[in-house]
Amino acid sequence: MNITTFKELEKECLLSNRTIYEITAQEQAQSSDISVGEVRKTVLNIINTMKDTIKSGMSSNEKSISGWCGDDCEKLLNRYTIHSALFGKLFQKIVIYALATSEENIRMGRITACPTAGSCGIVPAVLIAYSEEYDVSIDEQVNFLITAGKIGSIISNKVQLAGAVAGCQAECGVAAAMCAGGLAQVMGGSVKEILNASTLAIKNLLGLTCDPVCGLVEVPCIKRNPILAIHAVCTAELAMAGICSKIPPDEVIDAMRQTGQLMSPLLKESAQAGLAVTKTALELKTKIFKRL
């Protein structure tokens, strides 16, 4: 069994009366010559790494190489000791956890790429925060991540998940799609609802450029993580309400690939356009390379 499209995945789920995570775990077990239990154990280890990363990120305010980033999570924590988040405790945790994970990445800490390092905060933030607030079991957390992983895997069959290939739509955009699908799974969504959540997430981020200031995974990368984690929650809720993408998921991925191909190389991780060539960004670049 080698499912490479969302159409194939949905068909197999319906024919076999199984979930995305059941099919995916079996698929992975067969390809790796291990048991489904071992697959799930590996995924649990990844989740535990995500939790450790969040804790480490929340306890540090070490600055990045640019000196611009590294203490945003601390600032947010300080704010929330005085003012509660407008959208409540879950929102509060998601944005904190996403920032903590992203800042741990720029400190060269241990993170889980989801699907990339620059987008590493989106999936863990929603998975861990939602699980804490809604008392989600370990088994269901594993189901979330296996579901999310399959979504990312199918997308990667058509588009390389790298900013240098298709812009940030292929990094933070795909992370949001993975996250939305995983969340819909633990919210009790059907296969159709899970795929709609993912499709709505990626569809509304088509064309997102990769224009890192100084070529570093800091600005705007870090702040995209909490923002798009919330985006993923929104699309999951839309899908759970029965709101569907008018364009099927496989066609949306085709559109994403085409958009990436049409995008100028200057806006694909080269730091030669967009935010990376603003006056302030160029001044910062000069200062950084003088120090080095």
- Runs in which pLDDT lies below 50 for 5 or more consecutive residues are none
The largest pleated sheet is described as: none
Average pLDDT level: 97
Helices and strands: which structural class? Answer: mainly alpha
What does this structure look like?
With 292 residues, this protein is mostly helical. Helices cover 64% and strands 0% of the residues. It contains 13 helices and no strands. The longest helix is centred in the N-terminal third of the chain and has 23 residues. It is globular, with a radius of gyration of 19 Å. The termini are far apart.
What's this entry about, in short?
By secondary structure, the protein is mainly α.
Please render the helix and strand layout as text.
Layout: H1 6-16, H2 20-32, H3 36-58, H4 72-82, H5 89-106, H6 122-133, H7 138-156, H8 163-166, H9 172-186, H10 191-203, H11 221-240, H12 249-262, H13 279-291
Helix pairs in contact: 2-3, 2-7, 3-5, 3-7, 4-5, 5-6, 5-11, 6-7, 6-9, 6-11, 7-9, 9-10, 9-11, 10-11, 10-12
Features:
64% helix; 292 residues; mainly alpha; globular; single chain
